[in-house]
Design goal:
The model has no long low-confidence stretch (mean pLDDT 94). This protein has 183 residues and is of the alpha/beta class. It is globular. 34% of the residues lie in helices and 35% in strands. It has a single domain, classed as Alpha-Beta Complex (Nucleoside Triphosphate Pyrophosphohydrolase). Strand 5 and strand 6 form a beta hairpin.
Length: 183
């Protein structure tokens, strides 16, 4: 199993950020329900294919709203294997991890309650596969966007009443900034 030290040796030491976002009661309860198996982190992937990023839309997203694929890291799951699994389940793509660019510690709050979460953000390279969701319960659509097109969706994410989507807007902005710093 890859330890964080091993992952950092292979993919780089990520920049660390801390963030906090409020959630409404229903969204917060859904987050807590998703953590019942001990999950408290995710892997988020900026997968490059032909100078574009592979993005996903959840079934409840308004048409035209996309974000980078991500998925929960199960307790004791290998981080790299989780990334490969989630990429395939959400996009149909087989990938190769590139750089470990961000480790974001986020606190989600609702009234007096709070949950701590960590996102591990990587770049990756598309290797093969049909770009269509394998997990059609979780993912409605897969698409390709340029970094600028993905960044432009920030306002759409922020318009929602979702602390989770506001977090995804901040994560995307931070990731794009990191990517553009070493282009």
């Amino acid at each position: 199993m890859n330890t964080f030290e091993n992952i950092e040796q292979r993919f780089g030491i990520p920049r660390q950020l801390s963030m906090s976002f409020p959630m409404n009661l229903l969204e917060f309860q859904n987050l807590k329900d998703s953590m019942k198996d001990g999950r408290n982190s995710d892997v988020t992937l900026f997968v490059f294919k032909d100078n574009k990023i592979i993005v996903i839309a959840k079934p409840w997203y308004p048409k035209g709203l996309y974000r980078a694929p991500s998925g929960g890291l199960r307790p004791d799951e290998d981080l790299e294997l989780c990334a490969l699994r989630e990429a395939y389940e959400e996009t149909g793509a087989k990938i190769e991890l590139g750089k470990y660019i961000l480790r974001i510690h986020v606190t989600f709050t609702s009234h007096e309650d709070k949950v701590n979460w960590t996102s591990h953000v990587f770049t990756a390279k598309y290797l093969s596969g049909d770009l269509k969701p394998v997990d059609t319960r979780e993912i409605r659509e897969v698409n390709l966007l340029s970094l600028d097109e993905l960044f432009a969706l920030k306002e759409k994410l922020l318009e929602s009443d979702s602390g989770g989507l506001c977090y995804r807007a901040a994560l995307t902005e931070a990731a794009i900034k990191e990517i553009k710093n070493w282009e």
